[in-house]
From TrEMBL:
Function (record text): N-methyltransferase that catalyzes the formation of anserine (beta-alanyl-N(Pi)-methyl-L-histidine) from carnosine. Anserine, a methylated derivative of carnosine (beta-alanyl-L-histidine), is an abundant constituent of vertebrate skeletal muscles. Also methylates other L-histidine-containing di- and tripeptides such as Gly-Gly-His, Gly-His and homocarnosine (GABA-His).
Gene3D superfamilies named in the record: Vaccinia Virus protein VP39
Name of this chain's protein: Carnosine N-methyltransferase
Gene (name only): CARNMT1
Record-level GO cellular component terms: cytosol; nucleus
Classification via InterPro entries: CARME, SAM-dependent_MTases_sf
Statement: the UniProt record of this protein carries the keyword Nucleus: yes
Annotated stretches, region: Disordered: 1-43
Protein's UniProt keywords contain Repressor: no
Intracellular or extracellular location(s): Cytoplasm, Cytosol; Nucleus
Organism: Geotrypetes seraphini
Length: 414
């Protein structure tokens, strides 16, 4: 049965979120992190999604409110500016092609018509992005954003890169094309939730599962779809706007499409690969059992979740390396898990703040993390040091990144 009420609820913003979304954001023009791809030291940033926090500083509530509004409109602006930005990129390519000697141009009769096709894909993506941010001012339960009537301004390269990553996240979370990736990243986690909280032994609707860094929400949705009470938490407005769109406004399988690969001009075997669409959502997000409890909170995991012994299970997927200091994450997880509760983790250690000037970043090896986890008192139930996964991989690309993720299940003793 469709559980419209579970999903039609607005994205719930925890009280702390009002501070979290604005106060801790830095102007994205101030020294961007590496774009997806590889930085000069060979470090790969394919899953860089972090909106960068400010140094924690005390601001008046008014100043916080102002910064939060500014941040909100900056991200909306990025969604609106997308088309202009990507068209400029294509125009540059066209200009360069036209500057080639005529005999060389003649060798490539399809080149310009391919660019025309890309232009159509850009316009389509722009329409979807506009649909995503339509009504976003009203998506939070405890916060409204007044329309500021801003005209569209050029957005930073940093924000454009994040928007392109968010578009790719639709593949991972909500398309048939992302199934293999979900099978390798989400399924092991779902299996453990089911194993430690089996339907035969407990009322799963009373088991509270938290998914910090929930991205576009598919893992949280899948856990809720098994009957558990699940809350996703996310601080990126790029992600929150998009998950709100899928979870609350999509109700027909594969009724939308996006062209996530048009931004990739290198490593295409065939031109057609660049302009192939993905369709979403591959499931109807409203098809949850009635009474199932699924919610999303907006804001910084560490600021929102301070209540002790609240959660039966915490599931982190490609998340712990988003920390400035992963020990802080472990500390929060320890405190908010119930005694006897389970923490399931899968992901690499691609520290998001490494190489960012003026950002604290404590990069621990897995060995060090494990030692810290043990010293907190967690007991290891399961551990695999090399689970092969990808993150928003382009299956047809001539270049792909693979991760050998660590996977563990630990228990906080009773
Ligand atoms: C690499 S993505 C993983 C998303 C998702 N779990 C997946 O596997 O596809 C990490 C996510 O964590 C979010 N994030 C980073 N730091 C966070 C924080 N302190 N609180 C909440 N979310 C955070 C980012 O915005 C991003 O969406």
């Amino acid at each position: 049965m469709a559980a419209a009420c579970a999903l039609s609820r607005k994205t719930a913003a925890a009280p702390q979120m009002e501070a979290g979304l604005g106060r801790r954001r830095k102007s994205s023009d101030g020294g961007s992190p590496p774009s997806p791809g590889c930085s000069s030291n060979g470090q790969c940033w394919e899953h860089e999604e972090v909106e960068r926090p400010l140094y924690r500083q005390r601001l008046s509530p008014r100043e916080e409110e102002r910064l939060e509004n500014e941040h909100f409109w900056k991200i909306i602006n990025a969604f609106n500016y997308y088309g202009t930005n990507i068209h400029e990129r294509v125009n540059r390519t066209e200009k360069q092609f036209i500057s080639l000697p005529a005999n060389q141009q003649k060798l490539l009769p399809q080149f310009l018509s391919h660019l025309e096709k890309i232009r159509k894909c850009i316009d389509h993506n722009q329409q979807i992005l506009q649909a995503i941010v339509n009504d976003c001012m009203h998506m939070f339960e405890n916060k409204e954003y007044a329309d500021d009537g801003n005209t569209i301004m050029p957005a930073s390269t940093f924000d454009m890169d994040k928007l392109k990553s968010t578009i790719k996240q639709f593949i991972r979370d909500w398309s048939e094309d992302g199934k293999a990736e979900r099978d390798s990243c989400y399924q092991p986690i779902i299996n453990e939730v089911k194993k430690y909280f089996p339907k035969e032994k407990c009322d799963v609707s009373k088991i509270n599962v938290l998914v910090p860094g929930a991205g576009l929400g598919r893992l949280a949705w899948e856990i809720a779809n098994q009957g558990y009470s699940c809350q996703g938490n996310e601080w990126s407005l790029f992600m929150l706007f998009s998950s709100n769109f899928v979870l609350n406004r999509c109700s027909q399988v594969n009724s939308f499409k996006l062209y996530p690969w048009i931004h990739q001009f290198s490593n295409n075997r065939r031109s057609a690969d660049q302009i192939r669409p993905i369709h979403f959502p591959d499931v109807n997000p409203h098809d949850l059992l009635s009474g199932v409890n699924l919610s999303m909170t907006a804001g910084d995991f560490q600021e929102i979740y301070t209540e002790r012994s609240m959660w039966d299970c915490i599931a982190t997927c490609f998340f712990i390396d988003t920390a400035h200091n992963v020990v802080d994450y472990i500390d929060t997880i320890w405190k908010i898990l119930k005694p006897g509760g389970i923490w399931i983790n899968l992901g690499p250690l691609l520290y998001h703040f490494e190489n960012l000037a003026n950002e604290i970043s404590i990069e621990l090896s897995y060995e060090d993390i494990k030692n810290v986890v043990l010293q907190y008192g967690f007991c290891f139930e399961e551990e695999k040091e090399s689970v092969l996964t990808t993150y928003t991989v382009n299956d047809l690309s001539m270049m792909k990144y693979y991760y050998e993720c660590v996977f563990f299940v630990v228990r906080k003793p009773e």
